[in-house]
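Schema walk-through. Below, the input block comes first and the output block second. Nothing else is stored per chain. Lengths vary across the set, and this one has 892 residues.
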Amino acid sequence: MENVSTLSDSSAEMLAAATAAEVWITLKFTWSSKEYTVTIAESDRVLDLKEKLFTLTRVPNERQKILGLVKGKLPDDSVRVADMKFAPTKKFTLVGTPVGEEFKEISEDQLPDVVNDFDLQIDAASAEAKSMAQDKRNIRKILEAAKNLNINIMYPLRPGKKLLVLDLDYTLLDTKPLTSGMLPAEECARPGLHEFLELAYMHYDICIWSQTKWTWLEAKLVELGMVGNERRNYKVDYIPMFKVFSMRDGKPFSHAVKALRIIWEHFPQFGPHNTAHVDDLSRNFVLNPGEGIKISAFQLDGTLESQNDRELEKLGRYLVWLACHSDFKEVDHKNWKKVARALKENSEPSSCGIHDQWEIGVRILSNHVMAGGFKYPICSECASSSSLIEMISSVTRSVVRSVRNSKRSVPTFVSCTKRTFVQPTRTERASVVDTPPPHELENKFTPRADMLGFKLEVPAKVQGTERPIYLDMQATTPLDPRVLDAMLPYYTDQFGNPHSRTHAYGWEAEAAVDEARKHVADLIGADAKDIVFTSGATESNNMIIKGVARFHKEKKNHIITTQTEHKCVLDSCRKLSEEGFEVTYLPVQSNGVIDLKVLEDAIRPTTSLVSIMAVNNETGVIQPLKEIGAIVKKHRVYFHTDGAQAAGKIPLDVNEMGIDLMSISGHKIYGPKGVGAAYVRRRPRVRLEPIISGGGQERGLRSGTLPSTLVVGLGEASRIAKLEMKVSVSAFTSLPTIISNLVMNSATVLRDHAHVSALSKRLIDGITSRIEHITRNGDPNGYPGCVNLSFAYVEGESLLMALKDIALSSGSACTSASLEPSYVLRALGAAEDMAHSSLRFGIGRFTTEAEIDFVTEKIVAVVQRLRDMSPLWEMVQEGIDISTIDWGQTQH
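--- output ---
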């Protein structure tokens, strides 16, 4: 992959000359009791000034009120700086409220709407077009944008190819149902998208340039196959739009446009003579009106017209015809549809340049699957044998890539299709062929990465990374492909109800559920009959805590838990308090571990249940379960542990540890979401009152039809977790000792734990060796896959906003919406500012060393940058003990 981020010498000289030709002035502003200095050119406008102030204060342009620029009123954004007279020493005042940059789910009314979008037509020969092109401000800012642009060449630009700049939203796909999730991604693509890109790539290097915020579209484009294919080497992205002013209803109006010169400055082989720019909005052509090809906006409005849209078919014909021209400036694109229509009717325009027209239709039959598309007329020069070979081979490759539409990796799909299924007659079994069935592949060809010549973006993350690096394993884990493989047959062929005892469909599902039950039990050293399937750990915790307490309420009404439990445990206990139960919330020590003596002193004759989590979801602290179990058993009290963060990650044996009840989550061990389990001991029997009534399934403790597919996934995830973590529990006396031993001697553990431990150490050492004033929250001997660090003199939310390339958390996923500091860290004795500055790093099975190294570099750079902006950090650097400052005396 080649990286291009510098201008040519001539372009650099032009930028220097444009900069030197400007008259620069310095303005001083006060905002929020702070002073800022801004340097700006006289040719700039008030809008440019506001954008610079935004970078300093984070106050959005629309909220900025600049007092003093124009006497007695607020200046219009279109006013040039040169038109305002400033006193050299005058200070201006900025009024406005800043906002954060955190990503939020977009609502329906926030989605782009083409119907009401502002558009305008500017003729290439008009005075307005020439004025915009010659504007000193525009020239300088285009060159600045080109200089700051980083371009990653994913596929080498091919000699002799033309350049095609394509808009994304409403040109290639319908953005609104795509980003809102109303429709699957493949249904939002414009008809003929794949075939169009295949054809265009034969003649053009393709650049996709979209003004829609990338965060909205990334996940959906992965589904479309335009991002994140099996080679993971291309990413469609957007670059900043260039703002200009046009007249609207007689008044200046600012709008973002696309300046092709930004691209041309990096690639001198491209220019007006060989570039075509396709967009559904003419306003994007105002700086390059001669290169613009206006296409109709595409919206899936449910009409026959949208379903039968053939705009890309017409455009494909036109672009092939256009590619035959040596100089595009000789062609007027205003009538491109007439040319396309003439080509279809085989009536050549006089200047078409086509010799022997003929239809090319590629039909590849492979295992009863037809791969082909529109039949485009192509001139004989373009239809050379090499071009035909390129087209045929690319279409053939798309058969394999179309498997991506089902969101399965190719290995998973192949292994799935090799499984043995019961035939409809149920009298014999047969192996399914390796090839996907026709209905899975027909008409599902999606655009591929290798059709696109290069991408434009800000500096990339780790090479090959398409989405933010995921380090939030305590919130959820990705589905292991082996788990998906086990689940797929139960979505299709083996779909029976496991509670149907009168036919083979039910028997098959019941057998699968029983096998999954055994795998879950084996993971924690339990009997399979003790496992009750639920919807997840939250339901299991509610069922166990409320069920045990209510069953024994006549004789025992006291419950013990800790201050650092998961929110669903604390809320269940609060609910019971409202019902008259007494709840004791045990404090924890500074390392997050409970004091065993405090626990024993808290137990009363009326205590029915002790609920203490195994591994904390925010700090990774491991409680001494074996010791707790011994104390609780001595007092004849039931012992429950929330094992959502422990099962499959650390060794557990319910019998050896004296655990009577346990909660387990599927999606925390690389299984599916929506399924979990509760371990409820039968011998000696633990009695609890069910909270769900119905058909009496699951020993009457949890009624309702079991989702056999999800249960199978949980069982397979448990089986894999046990394989990936083989450690003898009996070799150690307590869990913290086990973990400490594993960190020191990774040879005692297989795969998962050694992998996670090594990456955890690499992360901690990499950060702490380069940044001072860092606190690791919790016990250092805790679970290594959960690392919680506090960065002094830095706000945690600011850290998260600056680390958009990394998926992290500042606390529990279940309480992340709260702006309050983590109650878990406060319980450990952390100061409020340190609790606010904490980040949780979740490392897992699929985390790589390259990702850890990237995260380390990013964290170090961001923390240093944020500290440099902090007045407190400046005081600390000067040796001032800020804890001795009476901040109340500094306020006026």
